[in-house]
Structures are given as structure tokens and as C-alpha cells.
Amino acid sequence: MELDELKEIWKNSEPSSQKADEQLKELLGKTSAGPIRRMKRNLLYELIAIIVSYSITIVYYFSAFQGKLIIIAWFMITIALSFFVYYYRKNKLLNEMECVTCMVKSNLEMQLKTLEKYIRFYLFSGMLVVPISMAIFAWIYYQGMTRFPITGWLDISTTGSPWKPALLWILASIILSVPIWFMNKWYLNKLYGKHIVHLKKILQEMSDD
Amino acid sequence: MIHKVCNLYGHTPHEREDLFQEIVVQLWKGYSRFRGEAKFSTWLYRVALNTAISGLRKKEKNIAYVDPSILPATFHDFNDNNPDQEQLQQLYEAIRKLNEIDRAIVMLYLEDRSYEEMEEVLGITQNNLRVKMNRIKEKLRKLTNQ
């Protein structure tokens, strides 16, 4: 069977089940099931969940306990703001990830590059969450200690030694950050690892011999 | 053309249906950005092939990879009265055994696209395309003679 002889057969082989206009309209009405669209959708759900849950908690801490725990509300506002930065960056990367009207090779190269950047950002931000949260928590704790001083190892009031608690927090940050980094790495590999390998393989196949 | 891409890249009827929908959606969304810098057919092939090739494998954890060659081909989609049905079926089966890029190259070749247009669609140099095409012909010859 010679390929050239089959060109005519191929050209005449349009399936008989052509989509009717109504079916096409129905298809266009559905949401895109593309991978990047799904990633964007998940990110949006994440953002909505943060806005809803944080708003309720922030309002609660501003008003409850006669405003004594207002500091927790401020802590949550800080976390929420940093999440918006995180959301913005991730969304930007997702927007840059796909160009279906570009040449196939350049689209795949761009997708691979952006996906790797996306993963690095995810890993980096995931690892930063612990020390930042610990630092903010330490600050809240310090504020509490200055009002209600206690003695002992956790005493970080102005009169106590700052070294012990500082060391404790540094240690705790490291101890918590390392497993989170590995966990995120495993999770990201599970999500995108195969696809990255696949993209690299395709690009290898496309490269000049 | 979209049906052909779906038949070449979708392993199951459900995947083919999903792919068809995704390509139509991408064409619809992208049409407003079509500036006529490339031929319309080039633009069309780019959108269809990009969508088919670069899509993440969804539900991969639920669906084990199945060698397309063992799947029953869905040639009931095609006109039953076509006298060349058997040859066409053999051709599809053979093309499905190729890798994704080779599938795209052979499809464009069968669609009678010039090497220049194939380069514009895929981003592979014409020389490289010619080399690949010769290899693909050889591979298909072997596959269809098996």
C-alpha cells in the first residue's frame, strides 16, 4: 500500500456524521474542557473559597470578643493579600501557557517553559508559606506576650532572652518547610510530571535530526 | 478535517467527542484573532493540531493507556458504501501506531499540503519534514504489510 495512492481515498473519507448547526451551537455553549481552562477554573475556585472563608473569619474576629482578637483578623488579611499576589502570578502564567494559533513546535516549547516556571513558583510559594506564617504568628505572639507576660522558655517579652524563641521558630520553620516542599514536589510531579516528560519527548521528536 | 484529527488522536469515542468539542471551541474563540497573516487552512490546522497534541492527559489515573491498535476502530463513522473502506481502515490503523508528530505530518501530507505549509503549521524545517516523511512512508509500508 503506497501512501501517495491513498491520498484520494483519504480526501474523500469525511465521516458521514457531519454535525448539524444545532449540535455545533450546543457544543459552543459548553465550557471548554481543555487542560489550561481546567487549571484556570480550579484557580478561580480556590480564589472564591479563600475570599468566602477569609471574609467570614475576618469579620468574625473584628467583631467578636469585643475586638480583643482583632490581631488575628489582621493576620488573616495579610495572608489573603499575599494569596492575591499568588493568584495573580499563577493566572498570568496560565495565560501565557497556551497559544493554539501558534506553530505547534513553538506552542509546545512555550507550554513546557511556562509549565516549568509555574511548578517552580508553586514550589517556592508553597515553601515560603510556612516561614511567613510563622513570622506573623510570632509577631502576634509577641504582641500578646507584651500584654500578658509569662515566664519560661517561651518568654519573648522585652525582658526575656530573644535567642531561645527565635531559635525555636527558625527550627520549627525548617522542620515544617522541608516536608511541605517534598510533599508539593511529589504532588506536582503526580499532576504534571508525565505531561512534562511527554512534552519533552515530542519536542525531541520534532527537533532536527 | 476536524473529524480526521479527532479520529487520529482520540483513543475512544468519548475522547474523540471531547476533542471535537475542544477544537470547535478553540476555533470559535480564536477566530476573532485571525488576522490573515497565514492562510486560513494553516491557521485551522494549527488550532486543531495544537489542541490535539498539547492537551494534558485528563483522567489518566483512571484510564490505563490502551494501545490504539487493539481498540476496535470506529469506522462505522464513515460511509459504508465507500469501496475503499478496507484500505482506509488499514491506513488509519497504521497511522494510529505512529507517534503524535508523525501522525500530524502524515495527515498534512495526505491532505496534500505543501512542505512549506507543513512547516508553517508544525514549525519543523522543510528538510527535516522531508526526512521524516520518508521514514514515515517506510514505517507505514512495514505496518501495512504486517
What does this structure look like?
The complex is a heterodimer of chains A (209) and B (146). Chain A is mainly α. Chain A has one domain (2-102, 116-207). Chain A is built from six helices and no strands. Chain A has helices spanning 7-11, 21-29, 35-63, 70-96, 104-147, 163-206. In chain A, helix 3 (35-63) packs antiparallel against helix 4, helix 4 (70-96) packs antiparallel against helix 5 and helix 5 runs antiparallel to helix 6 (163-206). Chain A starts with 6 loop residues before the first helix and ends with a helix. With 146 residues, chain B is mainly α. Helices cover 63% and strands 0% of the residues of chain B. Chain B has helices at residues 2-9, 13-30, 40-54, 85-96, 100-110, 115-122, 126-145. In chain B, helix 1 (2-9) crosses helix 2 (13-30) and helix 1 (2-9) runs antiparallel to helix 5. The longest helix of chain B is centred in the C-terminal third of the chain and has 20 residues, at 126-145. Chain B is globular. Residues 59-78 of chain B have low confidence and may be disordered. Classes of the chains: A mainly alpha (209), B mainly alpha (146). The interface between A and B is large, with 46 and 62 residues.
The count of DSSP E runs of length 2 or more, i.e. the number of strands of chain A, is 0
Query: Strand pairing plus helix content of chain A: what structural class?
Result: mainly alpha
Greatest interface (CB-CB under 8 A), with counts per chain: A-B, 46 and 62 residues
| Tally of structural domains of chain A | 1
Strand content of chain B: under 5%
